[in-house]
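Quick board copy: two proteins, each given as sequence then tokens.
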Amino acid sequence: MAIATPVRPTDDPFGTLPTPAPAVYAGRPAPAPRTLVDVLDATVKAHPNEPALDDGRRTLTYRALAAEVDTLRHRLADAGIGVGDRVGVRVPSGSNDLYICILAVLAAGAAYVPVDAEDPDERAELVFGEAGVSAILGAEREIRATPDIRATRDTPTPHDVRATPETPTTPETPTTREAAPVSPGRPTPADDAWIIFTSGSTGKPKGVAVTHRNAAAFVDAEAGMFLQQEPLGPGDRVMAGLSVAFDASCEEMWLAWRYGACLVTVPRSRVRSGADLGPWLAEQEITVVSTVPTLAALWPTEALLDVRLLIFGGEACPPELVDRVVTEGREVWNTYGPTEATVVACGSLMGGTGDGPVRIGLPLDGWELAVVDDDGRPVAMGESGQLVIGGVGLARYLDPAKDAEKYAPLESMGWDRAYRSGDLVRADPEGLVFLGRGDEQIKLGGRRIELGEIDTALQGLPGVVGAAAAVRTVKGGNQLLVGYLVTGEGWDRDEAVRRLRAELPAALVPRLAPVADLPTRTSGKVDRDALPWPLVDADDAGPSERLYGTEAWLAEQWAEVLGLTVDTARDDFFAIGGNSLAAARLTTLLRERYPAAGVADIYQQPTLRKLARRLERSAQDEGTVRAVRPTPTKAKLAQLLTLIPLFTLVGLRWTVGLAALANVSTWFGAYTWAPTVSWWWVAAGWAVLFSPPGRLAIAAGGARALLRGVRPGVYPRGGR
């Protein structure tokens, strides 16, 4: 782990000025260059028989995982995928196939470009088109070639920045390559490992390419941070609950695969529920969790009893959460890092807020951090400024113009390449303290969002004259993304919501709020801080509907979570600003009155009236007295008769043991009352009744005999 290293400004080389140390943090040297394929190979060699991947249906050892990855790698090679290519991955979450596909793409030497399977098709097409993928891996490991994109992939485009300052390369000679088989290759540290798209201020997502050098350095640097006294290893179980389109998912994967631990995938339904994920952690004996604070705040503390490493990232961590989860025997880390600097740039080991503010900490080995003023010069330690990142973790934008802008040299530090994060921090010697954003980029549920991308989508809606997006926080703590609209002729709310849901990921669809005009600053830009809050919905026609009974109570719960007044029983939870985390919070409230309520109820019945009816039915079902039929007499008799062979086996085991004891007693004298038998018989009895193969054969044979003729279906509790 790094320490804060004073670095003297370039304008005072001789130290004559009595200025405080500048806010520059330099870590230890970067780990040795290698690839993620090298990392996995080393783990497979060291722990071939340890579990590596578990989706609840099938568990794969490292040897079995490597075999399945190699099979798919050869299929990719047969499809013409090799070193330097890019492959889209759009596989349903929560399955082993998703991670096998990712590893196979890496093993083939290509970079994977992930899109969440639940994102709209338009989003997937945009991402895959911008990345120039050569093929797409889908459900059931289907490989779909994209010949139209392949032709452009072989001819470098303006968005294809292949060179990095550390390892310059030259673009390939333009060719027209068909999907012909290629010889399986192996990536080098300079090759791309993944390309993840973040929200873009122009309305178009920004592709960020991370090389194997970046990625492996990140994985190895984290090994120097976490659990130094009792390192991760076989026996640990790591939760995989984040979307692979979110760069923090890379941390989940390699927290398992670098150490020989098991990656345990979470069903998407559990992730959506939020609160239901807590019991799942205990049930699965999860020991390592990397997540966003908002989600962890929904879990009871007892759900984390087995967790010995808890990592927060993606959003600011509240002090009260730190106090609740920090305990003896568990390391709790607060981490920070943009996608552009390979997942995590710095981290802080939490010891409770009694130790000071919640920090984002010090840089990883090989990363460098500087806090600079508006002129790009380091501020003094203790002051605030923009965080700039340098070092081995710097990725690159696919767009060369964007890359040159955001990764320009930092002359005051002599860095040839530096990423300007746009985040404001305070420089403390013990570690950085996050203060907020310095631009119009925001974090919502751990996901980084450019408000400009939302603005563009809103402005493209029919009947919209002007639009701007903003984030508001309601009294319940829920963050709400609001789209303020100046509407004209042709405006239709339902059609607007439908179009936004088809175009944007679910997390980016805002609550729509028509307004008379948009306030502006003297610069002419929209003043987002002056946009009205709380909302007064001018789009409503007529008075609000009067609600009664369950509907009225449910409307109160919605208002508690969303911070909005629910006007009619036809209101849709997601259309008025709800999201997955809000649904998880609502589920917790609903269970106080309806214990059987689940997050799936909200997704399946998102309107107020329909959800109220479902809750009422669940209460009626709970009140129904179940008639349990007694076990039939014939079944009881059959169960008693099965005890005869079971007691016979127990008796035979005792007989073999007594026979062996009688034979041994003859070594010490003649005991006529202790009959002896041949040692061959004793050995045969031991082989059948005591040895593991013999006991397994008896158990398997008995099970087959009992279940012979049984077919899938529903059976009475006590048998027929």
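And the next:
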Amino acid sequence: MTFLNPTILFGLIAASIPVIIHLLNLKKLKKIEFSTIAFLKELQQSKIRRVKLKQWLLLALRTLIILFIVTAFARPTLQNVSLLGTASAAKSSTVFILDNTFSMSAVTDKGSYLNQAKQIIKEILDESQTGDEFAVISISGVGKNYFQFTDDKTQFLKTIDDINPSYISRTLHEAMIEAGQIIASAANPNKEIYILSDFQKSRIVNDPYISIASAVIFPSDTKLYQINIISKEPTNLAITDFEVNNQIFEINKSSGFTATITNYFNREVKNRIVSLFINDKREAQQTVTLKTGATKQITFEATLKESGLVKISVELENDDIIQDNSRFISIYIPAQISLAIFTDNISDAYYINAALATNDLTNSINITNRSTDQIQSTDLHKYDCVFIIGADFTAGLENLRQYIYDGGEIILTPGSKSSLEEFKSVLTNLNLPKPESLISDNNKMITVSLFDKIDFDHPLFSNLFIEDEKRLIESPKIFRYFKITTTGLGKNIISLLDGSPFLSEYQIGKGKVLLYNAAPILTWSDFSLKGIFAPLINKSVRYLVNQTRNTESIFAGDDIFVDISKGTALQIITNRPDSTTDYSSSKDFGNKKFFKYSNTDLTGIYTFYAGDKLLDYAEVNTDPRESIMDYLSPGEFNDYLTNINYKGNVFNINPDEDFTASIKQSRYGTELWQSFIIIAFILALIEMTISRSAKKDIVGLNKNS
């Protein structure tokens, strides 16, 4: 037996009132005057005993009446019991965990798995009664569409109808945590959780090795119903990865792309078409044949014809699950690169300016020359790249450092007048390896080193050599250089004879740094006169500027941290993949350089503008774990429940059978408050009868006295 209003039971203290009154009455001595002692002997002893017995019966009846009335208000309930077949089922508090992730969108002859799950919920609701309450958690909406209990069945059915397949993938464990929080507030004796899912192994928990036992708490009398919707395994090929092979993008030059495709179906799939789209135009197409469980990489070559934001996607022809048949990436190729060159001595930039002036007109570079004294007062974020020649700018170090950490790209070389201490100070403040020494032969133009090892696989050397041509670079003569050791912080691109880098690359915060260890002037080396100089300087700028967004993979439902440091406006405009628009007030961001955008329920390219200026962009894709068609057995699911310390009952329901009968049998119970009120009423009638009889006996005794 359980009580629906257990706090009312404190009222049982009132049952002590008749006892207290009875005990107080015993202390009241009633003086009866009589004429002779002989009269006492004439009293009928049997009548006295009868009066006392009735008084004890009255005490018991009055106590029982209070006990039954208080208990009735506490709503006593017998669960899973029907008394003589006359009682109704106890009221239920029900939480539905509805799996609406895209793996549930597969269609059979009965409709999609999601629609089948919705129909089962409706049939369960048909068996509900007045006073029952309901809540639903859609797995893709965990943490976003938290529903409290409601007893409005009509509105609840509308909520169920409005749940659609989603690109967002969440784990069942996350939904179980929310279900535990909701069911803890249940007001009814029957506490039920229904899980309607395909029970993918890969989407139970994100990390099977984490300790999750303390994360889910359910009342011990909770009933959990496992309803597996899967009737047949869907045909599913999925694009699980898509990447750009290049790191430097140039107009009218070829770029490579690789798509990774996996067959999750239990049979071989033949001749499926895979297409590459650039800015919504089909640019290439191939076919793929995959055995069950096999993975294959498909490589495409295409020419980029437009500057600006380039949206690239790869698509498979449709199968049973279409949401994972496409994947997106985006790159940005500026129509004109904005480059700032800061120098200690303006003449130090002569060869750099000359080299950059040789670039083709399809992607020109707009150069601004400034003194290193101006670094502190310059808004560096408005430049695509910053080229620094020199080290005499202590006041501007913090501004430069912040620019790099925010995602800025810089090329750094010493200047003609840079001392070891100045250059060491700059590199140390930027968290770069500090130079050990300045190598030279008493400032004479005598060769002290040459190129040794060159990483020709680095993107800086892509398209610089004719295919199959032996890759050779004539080493310049190095007269002066700072000896630097990368110490594991970066990677050497060009090394000198002593093993120290002539050119090295570093990731600092969200930005990149290309570091040359010699000034680009003839007193330090004749590098500026070599044929490799101009192409390498141009490639250095393009490599830093023309890259994909520097971020980890973003899956549907994840947050995008948007860089808004390059523009100001009253509103940030977000263009979503379905051509809808969101607006965010810049007042909400204050002086922040990033803001969090969370409305990522669709896959595709998201762009962020301040007016007409593109601030940032991001590609959102499906979580590849949602594509894996490997399912839990009932025993494995019970192991999961054991792991989370679930103590309630578990029922495995077959949706193809009469599941409503099984549910009725498990949930049936009887509320006893009406019976307790009737018993209290009957006891009250008995009490009234005995009370009248006792009063007559007492009157009779008084007359005889």
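Board note added afterward: The CA atoms of residues 474 and 531 lie 8 Å apart.
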